Amino acid sequence: MREASLAAPGTAAAHMPSLRTASILGIGTALPRRRVASEEIALRHGIDASWIHQRTGVSERRFAEAGESLTGLASAAAREALAAAGVEAGEVGLVLVASLTQDDLLPNAAPLVAGEIGADGAFACDLGAACTGFLSGLSLAASQVESGRTDLALVVGADLLSRVTDHDDRKTSGLFGDGAGAAVVGTGGGG
């Protein structure tokens, strides 16, 4: 555990409790199998693929197929992050999943992911903050680690936006894809 004191050594304030620093200890990602090139989207709209790339920087995105789920992608990214951090799922005290496209209304994605990866004792909840969901989760996880409420947190950002995108709207259809990313947050590291 890495701790930092705000007070100078030898002063009365030096005897105050030290602050814990949270760090990202490992990351992981998961993508659906299906690749969708900008050419495929451009053909649908009767435009050149370079038009999409010039405006978005996106040349390819992934779309989930039938049978691929948000929970499955989120769990795969979580397992990869845990492995990268050298952490067992049972050690995690908090699981946060940021998504606006969970598989079902209930149960929420986070408890499903926690169960899927074996983080059975973790507090698990979803965050619905759209584009800033992962960053909101990272901030919340860091604050929980720094306050000592948990030693390890798992943050997953996952969406299947291809399922809610209007593919006939040329202004937005080239922007969104599907995937999941995860980070293990804990003490130690560089902060």
Please supply descriptive tags for the structure shown above:
191 residues; alpha/beta; five-stranded mixed β-sheet; two-stranded antiparallel sheet; 5 helices; disordered N terminus
SSE inventory with pairings:
Blueprint: E1 3-4, E2 19-20, E3 22-30, E4 34-37, H1 38-45, H2 49-56, E5 60-63, H3 70-85, E6 94-98, H4 109-117, E7 123-127, H5 133-146, E8 152-160, E9 178-187
Parallel strand pairs: 6-7, 6-8
Antiparallel strand pairs: 1-2, 3-9, 4-5, 8-9
Helix pairs in contact: 1-2, 3-4
Question: What report would you give on this structure?
Answer:
With about 190 residues, the protein is an alpha/beta fold. Helices cover about 30% and strands about 25% of the residues. It is built from five helices and nine strands, in the order ββββααβαβαβαββ. The longest helix has 16 residues, at about 70-85.
Instruction: Give the strand order of the largest sheet, numbering strands 1, 2, ... along the chain.
Output: 3-9-8-6-7
Helix content: 25-40%
The major beta sheet can be summarized as:
5 strands, mixed
Distance between the termini: 11 Å
Q: Average pLDDT value?
A: 90
> What's the overall geometry?
elongated
Low-pLDDT runs: 1-5
List SSEs in N-to-C order: EEEEHHEHEHEHEE
Rg from alpha-carbon coordinates: 20 Å
Relative strand content: 25-35%
Number of strands: 9
Oligomer: single chain
Structural class, please?
Answer: alpha/beta
Number of helices: 5
Summarize this entry quickly.
The chain has 191 residues and is an alpha/beta fold.
